[in-house]
Amino acid sequence: MFKKYRFLKISLLSILSLVLIIFLFGYWFINLLPARDKTLMSKTVKEIPYLSENVISNRGKVLVVVTSTSMIEKNQKKTGYELTELSRAYYVFQANGFEVDIASPKGGKPPVVIDDEDMGVYDYAFLNDKEAQYKSENTIPLDQINSSDYSAVYIVGGKGAMFDFPNHKKLQSLIKSLYQSDKVVGAVCHGPAALINVKLDNGDYLLKNKNVSSFTSKEELFLIPEAKTVFPFLLQEELSSKGAKFNEGTMYLEQVSHDDNLITGQNPWSTWKVAETMIAQMGYTPKDRKITEDELAINVLSKYNSHGKSEAKKLIGKITKESNSVNRTLIAQHAVIAAMKGEISTFYDLVTLVSFLKNIDKD
Q: How many Å is the maximal CA-CA distance in the chain?
């Protein structure tokens, strides 16, 4: 009997010790992250040299398309377009001399998804930009768009795109017209859903034999395990079924496919490259831009995935010597993702990189 109680006592102490260790680790982990920069929320276009200096004269117009879908019916979750996928591309086009019009299937004010953790200087500047806000809250109905007015179309992602883009006849017609006129078609994340049913004059799907990237099935199912029943299809599978040569990159890292005048990106972290590749495809050298902290973090993560922790540390050293900052919160998020996937060694390595960055920021 006493041996039984002794066993229970030891078990209880072990559980309490484990809880304490987890709590202390969590506290330490949270303290690795930087404090939120409250000044970001008030940033304006005038404070960003990329947008306010060396202004390029007008080169034409780019059409940006966002979803009108605000709710996923099967799980009653709110949805819409992703702000960061709009704001960052919007400013790339504008900085490179293109006027931007924003359209949606229904027109008017579309639903927007704002993830505070992903917001950066350009995203807050967009929210403080009266002209950008007017355009994004008073979108042009797609039925009123004339494709001949534009040099390119860029299709924003967001889960809502999975519902109102694939079968929208006017959107299909716009994409087809621009593509066949050798103008540029770009899309990111869930945005390529708009390409699925586009057929060219020769009867082939636009996607046939095209190199394409989009939000992957792995990324979708990791976030929403029931995605196969929530969405009408998994985007990667549907693109492939229409003849696309799907290029799958690492989960939640930058991946862009460029096939002549069709340019597609895997996820929100591909937005900058998609937009700047579109500028290049239109025949212009993209305007010089200071790489953001998020992009530098993605570069570090990509280096880690391809060459390991040691090379990632070397890259961090090189970046910080040039007085650039790396978003260590983004690297920490990938550490959490690794832990959720059961990749303990990756989790440990990424936490080590976050700690390394914090120590550099202290110096």
A: 87
Q: What distance in Å separates the CA atoms of residue 53 and residue 40, rounded to the nearest whole number?
A: 20
* C-alpha dist (Å) from residue 30 to 25, 252, 333, 358: 9, 21, 11, 12
- Average pLDDT over the chain, rounded to an integer: 92
Q: Give the pLDDT of residue 362.
A: 66
In the sheet with 262-265, reading across from the earlier edge strand, the strands are 140-141, 98-104, 60-65, 152-155, 184-188, 262-265, 256-259
Taken in order 250, 251, 252, 258, the sign of the CA dihedral is positive
Does the pTM exceed 0.85? yes
* Cβ atoms 78, 71 nearer than 8 A: yes
pLDDT over threshold 70, residue 18: no
| Cβ(112)–Cβ(138) below 8 Å | no
Quote the tokens at residue 203: 């009867």
Pairing of strands 60-65, 98-104: parallel
Write out the H or E segment, with its range, that includes residue 137.
helix 130-137
